[in-house]
């Protein structure tokens, strides 16, 4: 089975979605259409999870300049801040 058309279409969908996010025209982190398309690829054995991750990383890199896996965790992240509850980090007081 030729999986290239599936991979090209998924890449196109992801690039369109990431471009909308980058341009501020979309706030959703995930698109049900894209999630369904990826799930169908898995069910039909067109791709596996490793393939999907590579496609996602490549599309993300084309739009944002870095792979998705690197964007999740900033390189200068301070782990100590993660131990502090959000409401305390943001100087908010709970009533």
TrEMBL record:
Protein name: Uncharacterized protein
Organism: Thiosulfativibrio zosterae
